[in-house]
Amino acid sequence: MPQIVVLPHATLCPEGAVIEAPVGQTICDALLEHDIDIEHACEKSCACTTCHVIVREGFDSLNEPEEKEEDLLDRAWGLEANSRLSCQAVLADENVVVEIPKYTINHASENH
Ligand code: FES
Questions:
Q1: Can you give the pLDDT at residue 107?
Q2: Whole-structure pTM value
Q3: Boundaries of domain holding 45
Q4: What Pfam families does the record tag this protein with (predicted)?
Q5: Which of 42, 83, 98, 100 to mutate to test the pocket of ligand 1 (most atoms within 8 A of CB)?
Q6: The domain spanning residue 69 has which CATH number?
């Protein structure tokens, strides 16, 4: 089973975490199953950007993002070249390292 190394996030996962998840599961589902309560405002239907993660390692092992995901990602806070919507990013048999960005669009709009 691939491992997901989650880098520390101030509120969701202050110490960071290492979890195991089955091939074929999305990163979002894997995090939620392990009590890392990443936002998923559209219920994982690829219609928001709140489940955005940056894949620091193992990016190329994931499925190719669809156009819709790419379009949405353009609006995500803190977009990077290795950004994915975690509810659309499906694990293959390779470990990944993910970073949950500090803010989502929801937070950003509340605070600014
Ligand atoms: S939960 Fe909305 S796009 Fe992933």
A1: 59
A2: 0.93
A3: 3-99
A4: Fer2
A5: 42
A6: 3.10.20.30
